[in-house]
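Per reviewer request, we include the raw input and output of the structure prediction for the construct analysed in the revised manuscript.
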Amino acid sequence: MGTRADSDSAGNFRVDMTNDKAATPGSINTLGELLSSETYKANLEFWQRAWNGVKTPYTQMPDLPYLPSIPAWLKERNVETVLDLGCGSGWLSIFLARQGFKVTGVDVADHAIDLARQWADQESLDIKFDIADIAAMNYPTGSFNAIVANSIFEHFTYDLAKETIKRLRAILKPGGGFIGCFDKVGTGPGEYFELEDGSHIYTDKARAGMLLRYFPDKELEKLFADWTITKFDEFGSGSRFICAHI
């Protein structure tokens, strides 16, 4: 069996979680159980290892067909403050800060945040970067006008994505918006086992512990059932680009 990953890493961590019943949707009842499962903790450890191998910020902007749509949609809604989920070394935070948005980037990997701060300092951009698991953020109610998440939720189980998206509403200001890209994943080389909800857990040496999940369109519509979706586009790669507001 195999699937695709969008990041590179070189780690020796290996984990056998085929009997991790705590991670299966049928037995999880609370957000705490989701976050404390061995499956999810191994996923977080994977990202720490992946970023620890990166020496300098990669400052070239990605060639993404929907990229110009992000600031355009935000400006249409008079957005000032933006939270960048899973910001990594900060490319999307930098991109938005260059255009005048007040940006906060958050990522679980402390080294990724160090790289992002270095890049922002190089460009004299005032961006706040926080180290936190985006599934357990504690920002106050109404902290942001908008939230962006580029290829982030593919590393969550369905239940965890549902709970996290639900919690995002609380940290948005009234009428706040969400922009997300959900990639087409599930093909390519690699060794993994599958959870009951279809999530893949890698077991090969380079990506051991990484969680990867494909969200079909119907699932995405269900995840955002309580939001007003204003844009739902699919690109040639199979990625889905969603803009929504509360």
